[in-house]
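User: For my dataset I need records formatted as: sequence, then structure tokens, nothing else. Please produce one.
Assistant:
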Amino acid sequence: MVRKRTADERRRCAEENGFNDDDTDVDDEPVPREALDYTKERCSGPGGKADQYIKGPLRKELGLSTATRPKKYLTLENYMYLEKQLWQNDGYDYVHEAYRVFISGKLKCHVFTPARLGEISEGSTRRGTGKGLRYKETVILVAWKDGEPELRFSLKREFAKAMHDKEQQRPTHLLYEHLPGQPLVVNPMLFLLAICLAAGAFKNYKTLKEVLDVRPPANQRYWVLEWSSHVLDLPVFPEVSVDGATNKIQTGNSFNTQLKALSIRAGISPVTVHSMRREALILATANGYSDRELMKFAAHTNKMTLTRDYLSSITVVDGLAGFLKLPLRSDQAEDFRSMTVNRNPELLQSLPAKTHDQLRQREDCVAITKKIDDLTLEISCAQKGAAARDLKSERGQLYEQRRVLEEEESNRIRGDQERIHPSERKEKVYVDQHRSRFDRLRHMMPERERLSVTLFCVAPMRGPEGESAIEDLISLVKNNCRVAYEPSLRPLRTQCAMPYHAAGRCQAQHCGVDMCPYCDVEVER
């Protein structure tokens, strides 16, 4: 039997192994540590103390509303309304036509992937960081599909929600070119390729023909089209000025505003990026993917999130056919999700003149207008400086208050607007200037006029219609939008086709050359 060691022997053995029993430098202060997931959920998650405080005492103290907005779903039908409005009916004058291309391209990134707003654009929680979808988070390659070359595009959601420390779990989504039987307007590669070429993003390819001529090597199934080094940190969807695309990423708030305005012009109640995300996840669930694949696709860390927050209350389970033992259907629910956007093709785009006049005569609006007039007079008399800036800031707030009143009245009028079936209408439909503007001006915009036809052709991207559409999209992104003129007014052999010149001095320093502002060529005297 082994002899039991004494206390001195145990102490000596511990000292030999590096143990130090000197506790004079031990700090009695508690050491903070990371809370366990269970504790976090209890304290700050749904049903936790903070949640109970907000929904209980704080709600009563501040009079917080508990109402929730109804969920909307951007189904395929609703998505096509947006695209048709954007390319066939829209007379809205963006600061630059590049925005029209970027909006359509960004719509596809959100519709075909469940990416959140702040994962493509710059989110409000990361304002000023420039973080969003950048070229270095994307890859484009050419591969073979049924014996034909096909462009494929991958985008990594580098800034996925709640995955800042889980790089390997951030999903990467794939978009591709080959979409048989579909119109060109739904082809994501058509728009992404145009955006990349307009930005000069490819390292070794500058023209559309050069990109479409690329084939994978004989001993390889694919070939990566490398990005130029100067675009790696640039956003795929940048902010646009009157001079064209900038190097600054578009903010999520800006895109949300554009999406809301486009929805109203298309005759549907405003949709958000989350409307697209819900529909994408519902369709992915219906396609029979496993729970793990769906969690990866949605960038969720909790498998209950999808069921609790995203799946529609409109169930796709066909109880009728199941009970009667008929073939099951899965198409009966989509129309009910489509109707959540309350489409009205005749939705008012602005306040009727009578309603607008009544609003301007209301006491609250009259008071705001009087304050604006008084401040305008004070500003005209004030000297430049801090005082003038303060007055202008105050006037800007009043303008915003008046705009909010007009928007509230517009929403009320739209909510009360009657929807009449076309077959039951007895009088001619009134078409306001916002709906008729594009038809009146399309002959002066050759790219827009061609795209209104080619984008809705069922054709391959590598056909004549597809190549024509890409070239026109590139032109919209790159062309100078400061002055738009008809082809008949373009310079002929460097001479202005105008019957006369409107001469103006060249803006270059120490330059006295007379220039025609219509064609930017020198005026001959």
